[in-house]
Amino acid sequence: MKILALDSSGLVAGVAVTEDDNLLGEYTINYKKTHSQTLLPMLDEVAKMIELDLNTIDVIAVSAGPGSFTGLRIGSATAKGLALALNKQIVSVPTVDALAYNLWGCREQVCPLMDARRQQAYTGLYTFSDWQMQTLLPQCAAGIDEITAKINESGKKTVFLGDGVPVFADYLKENLQVPYLFAPAHCNKQRAACVAVLGGILYRQGKAEDAAAHKPDYLRLSQAERERQEKARDFRI
Amino acid sequence: MSDTEQTIKILAIESSCDETAAAVVVNGRDMRSNVISSQIALHTLYGGVVPEIASRKHIEKINQVIAQALSDADMTLQDMDAIGVTYGPGLVGALLVGVAEAKAISYAANIPLVGVHHIEGHISANYIENPDLKPPFLCLVVSGGHTHLVKVTDYGTYEILGRTRDDAAGEAFDKVARAIGLGYPGGPKIEKVSHEGDPKAISFPRAKIADGVYDFSFSGLKSAVLNYLNGCRMKNLPINQADVAASFQQSVTDVLVDHARHAIREYHMDSFAIAGGVASNGVIRAAMEQMCREEGVKFYHPSPILCTDNAAMIGAAAYYDFIAGKRAGLDLNAVPNLKLGE
């Protein structure tokens, strides 16, 4: 089974192609250039290098959120355009799950942190046991204080990763009461290969969807919707 | 078969603001389909377009809209010779959905891609229903985001004679409509009410720009309307909504007509066209038609469905760019403040 995976949910832009248990090619860029300009040229580069016939892909996996709203849409629109032209389905992979998958096999508690602004993180808690990833806290938007309290409560050693780590490092150092580590460079950011592998698992579980129906899972309303809801709530009170 | 007899089929995609649109256009003039998924009802809740909500809706609708455009045209992607997409100006998040989608389709289906300027699209809407319209001509583009007086010297070649210094004409309609309690979208609502009002009831200003004879300014007019409303409220005088609407609309119309007439005379043009959402305003359209008759020039205008944001107009513009050899790469980006002629 051949999977094309895309991730443009955060600072990293990534493209990967897997075939069964082989990673055929992966391209990761963590640089300031906009994903809109890089993602498709990166795919083109990978495809050329591995002489990929796009028609042989079984499914397109995309990191579907949470993340930068615009970044998610660039990934989703690219996946939807490819899927429309190639007549393929899309598998939506939860971004935080895919981030945690970087640390496959880690027996400690894994906590991905993506900067969600306003002192919040897109985060979750995971561990690897019984040869697979176990979700202790499904991906969510939470205050850095909330997730820190939860980790302290668990009393478990924790490994952190994600582009939220440098943002929240000072807070974590001051407030964590459990032993912790920050993951090293080769496995601490989004990787499209993780999206491909998790995408394959979800695909085999029958979770692929028609390209037309796919949309990102932002985990958050737009600011306008949020303010409108708050107003409505105030009015009721 | 000579080049001019070739049939070029273009799939066009537009997502610069709050309409998700796709169309199939043959040879720039023959519209085979024109699908528009409008979000107006949704944005009405917020009194105007919310960029993030618009972007979210685009991604939900875009594949359906494209599939519908192909199926309405009774064609498949494989029949297409090129894909045209709006890459600016507009809301960046909204534009990016169309641009990323179009690039991916172009790449996967191996079809050339053409990036289209949104205003160039509006101008080109006139080609679809007017087979005799050819450059050079003058075009006034008036919409919620743009007010441009453009000299179309050739296909794809534009000279901007004037533009708004502040609010776009359509923006002024929206703001005034909100001030007199009509709500969003302002253009159609003001026009409807204005039929019961007297356009001469209140004398609102007709702004002139000293150093830019063809430039527009509508923020002064908007302020004049707001001041008038405040004055009435302070003095406890009744406000006649229809009179305010009609008088405001007349002021906008007079300025637009005056600028257009001036340019027609100075540049000795024998064809004049209007385009953009505000071009579907019946009062403005009638006044332009009247002016063109007086000046002895031919008047062109698109149907209302081609005045609003749509993809058929992008397909028309993309055709002329395509035959001129313009192509976009896989790194095409959305350019929110893209200038015409760049």
TrEMBL record, chain A:
<dbReference type="GO" id="GO:0002949">
    <property type="term" value="P:tRNA threonylcarbamoyladenosine modification"/>
</dbReference>
<protein>
    <recommendedName>
        <fullName>Gcp-like domain-containing protein</fullName>
    </recommendedName>
</protein>
<dbReference type="InterPro" id="IPR000905">
    <property type="entry name" value="Gcp-like_dom"/>
</dbReference>
<dbReference type="GO" id="GO:0005829">
    <property type="term" value="C:cytosol"/>
</dbReference>
<dbReference type="InterPro" id="IPR022496">
    <property type="entry name" value="T6A_TsaB"/>
</dbReference>
<dbReference type="InterPro" id="IPR043129">
    <property type="entry name" value="ATPase_NBD"/>
</dbReference>
<feature type="domain" description="Gcp-like">
    <location>
        <begin position="24"/>
        <end position="226"/>
    </location>
</feature>
<dbReference type="Pfam" id="PF00814">
    <property type="entry name" value="TsaD"/>
</dbReference>
UniProtKB/TrEMBL annotation, chain B:
<dbReference type="GO" id="GO:0008233">
    <property type="term" value="F:peptidase activity"/>
</dbReference>
<feature type="binding site">
    <location>
        <position position="281"/>
    </location>
    <ligand>
        <name>substrate</name>
    </ligand>
</feature>
<feature type="binding site">
    <location>
        <begin position="141"/>
        <end position="145"/>
    </location>
    <ligand>
        <name>substrate</name>
    </ligand>
</feature>
<keyword id="KW-0479">Metal-binding</keyword>
<feature type="binding site">
    <location>
        <position position="309"/>
    </location>
    <ligand>
        <name>Fe cation</name>
    </ligand>
</feature>
<keyword id="KW-0012">Acyltransferase</keyword>
<dbReference type="InterPro" id="IPR017861">
    <property type="entry name" value="KAE1/TsaD"/>
</dbReference>
<dbReference type="GO" id="GO:0002949">
    <property type="term" value="P:tRNA threonylcarbamoyladenosine modification"/>
</dbReference>
<feature type="binding site">
    <location>
        <position position="187"/>
    </location>
    <ligand>
        <name>substrate</name>
    </ligand>
</feature>
<protein>
    <recommendedName>
        <fullName>tRNA N6-adenosine threonylcarbamoyltransferase</fullName>
        <ecNumber>2.3.1.234</ecNumber>
    </recommendedName>
</protein>
<keyword id="KW-0408">Iron</keyword>
<dbReference type="GO" id="GO:0005506">
    <property type="term" value="F:iron ion binding"/>
</dbReference>
<dbReference type="InterPro" id="IPR000905">
    <property type="entry name" value="Gcp-like_dom"/>
</dbReference>
<keyword id="KW-0378">Hydrolase</keyword>
<dbReference type="GO" id="GO:0061711">
    <property type="term" value="F:tRNA N(6)-L-threonylcarbamoyladenine synthase activity"/>
</dbReference>
<keyword id="KW-0819">tRNA processing</keyword>
<comment type="similarity">
    <text>Belongs to the KAE1 / TsaD family.</text>
</comment>
<keyword id="KW-0645">Protease</keyword>
<comment type="function">
    <text>Required for the formation of a threonylcarbamoyl group on adenosine at position 37 (t(6)A37) in tRNAs that read codons beginning with adenine. Is involved in the transfer of the threonylcarbamoyl moiety of threonylcarbamoyl-AMP (TC-AMP) to the N6 group of A37, together with TsaE and TsaB. TsaD likely plays a direct catalytic role in this reaction.</text>
</comment>
<dbReference type="GO" id="GO:0006508">
    <property type="term" value="P:proteolysis"/>
</dbReference>
<dbReference type="GO" id="GO:0005737">
    <property type="term" value="C:cytoplasm"/>
</dbReference>
<keyword id="KW-0963">Cytoplasm</keyword>
